[in-house]
Write a structure and sequence with these properties.
- There is one protein chain.
- The protein is mainly alpha-helical.
- It has helices at 2-17, 33-41, 49-76.
- It has a domain at 32-78.
- The protein contains three helices and no strands.
Length: 78
């Protein structure tokens, strides 16, 4: 009966720490968020075109902000 009491904790320790893989590994995705959104926008999933429309709207807004910032920098330098 006593060997069972020793076998259970030993098996539990082996199961928890015996994977053989380092805990330091990082699973990194190679696609950026924009690339993923672009793939989604071109897919045949229902309403996926809305992702493309949102990306175009965000690009337009960003371009407008950059233009306004460049004008503000040009007028405040003097």
């Amino acid at each position: 009966m006593k060997p069972i009491f020793w076998a259970v904790p030993i098996c539990a320790l082996l199961a928890c720490g015996g994977s053989g893989q380092s805990g330091q590994t990082v699973n990194r995705d190679t696609l950026t968020e924009r690339q993923k959104d672009s793939i989604l926008a071109n897919s045949k999933i229902p309403n996926a075109r809305a992702v493309g429309s949102a990306m175009r709207a965000a690009d337009s807004t960003s371009a407008g902000i950059q233009r306004a910032d460049s004008v503000a920098r040009d007028t405040t330098e003097y």
